[in-house]
């Protein structure tokens, strides 16, 4: 791929999410399955010889210096000693604080794209490791395969998933991930399961109870979605909730029945990240 190309940064869904413990540094041990879906942010890059990293499209409420795209580019520069720079254009479609991993996916796409465009030559494993400095969710987007993840979300056992159409609802709230993990009432002792035993439909989202109690809009969206599909669940630390349909027409019918004031969309489950093969 070239400098002028559009580089996708897909969303993820957590098909289940169990909290199995807490590390000494406060981070939580999780078990989860990440699935990539075909709803994406899009990034474009322009090369710079002055070495600067500039975000041409700053996000409301996010200072460019703390934007994950800029931080990812700087980290790769520092780690590789690369003297080139880039202007980054981000076309943001995924909601912030939605549990869809948008910011983390943007960061991973920056690492993959600039490693390719700058010719810095880091391996995918090195980029995964680098990405963990930016957030617990970044490595999986670099990894690029649907996967059963453990640890804080950096140890992977890849899984093959059946085709599915997802109806995703966006409750109009931004959930601060740290506040959900910090809640005293969060259940933190789910019994670990073996990756080989997991099948679609197994497990729940342990963060759901806290998120629904603190953000009633999530509870309302989930209650409506469960009437359409009993297996509906929240993704990540919220706010988005989703349901899987094996029949796309059933998913479309549920979307058509969405109550006034609710917003939602359909997405197809991907077999892998669209940049899974890029070097
Ligand atoms: C919950 C998950 C599930 O995929 O997704 P999101 O809802 O954010 O999409 C992730 O584990 C989120 O990963 P990410 O959003 O990258 O989190 P980070 O920026 O690393 O962490 C934000 C804060 O959440 C808490 N945190 C995060 C991950 C984790 N395993 N344990 C934690 O306790 C910490 O307080 C941390 O300071
Ligand atoms: N490029 C980015 N896109 C989205 N959020 C970003 C970005 N850079 C920094 N952030 C910050 O990260 C937070 C979490 O964003 P995001 O990854 O989209 O949500 P989640 O982790 O819930 O899936 C945002 O609220 C925002 O403050």
Q: How is this structure best described in words?
A:
The protein is an alpha+beta fold and 279 residues long. The chain has a single domain, classed as Ribosomal Protein S5, domain 2. The strands form 2 sheets. Strands 1, 2, 3, 4, 5 and 6 form a 6-stranded mixed sheet that branches. A 4-stranded antiparallel sheet has the order 8-9-7-10, with helices on one face. The longest helix has 16 residues. It is globular, with a radius of gyration of 18 Å. The termini are close together. The structure holds 4-diphosphocytidyl-2-C-methyl-D-erythritol 2-phosphate and adenosine-5'-diphosphate (ADP). Adenosine-5'-diphosphate (ADP) binds next to α1 and α2. The site of 4-diphosphocytidyl-2-C-methyl-D-erythritol 2-phosphate has 20 residues, from β1, β2 and α5.
CATH-level-2 architecture: 2-Layer Sandwich
Structural class, by secondary structure, is alpha+beta
Q: What's the end-to-end separation, in Å?
A: 10 Å
Q: How many domains make up the 3D coordinates?
A: 1
CATH fold field value: Ribosomal Protein S5, domain 2
In angstroms, what is the radius of gyration? Answer: 18 Å
Bound ligands, each once: 4-diphosphocytidyl-2-C-methyl-D-erythritol 2-phosphate, adenosine-5'-diphosphate
Order of helices and strands: EEEHEHHHEEEHHHEEHE
Low-confidence region ranges: none
Average pLDDT works out at 97
CATH class: Alpha Beta
Number of helices: 8
Active site: 12, 137
EC number: 2.7.1.148
Pfam families: GHMP_kinases_C (PF08544), GHMP_kinases_N (PF00288)
Domain GHMP kinase N-terminal: 68-144
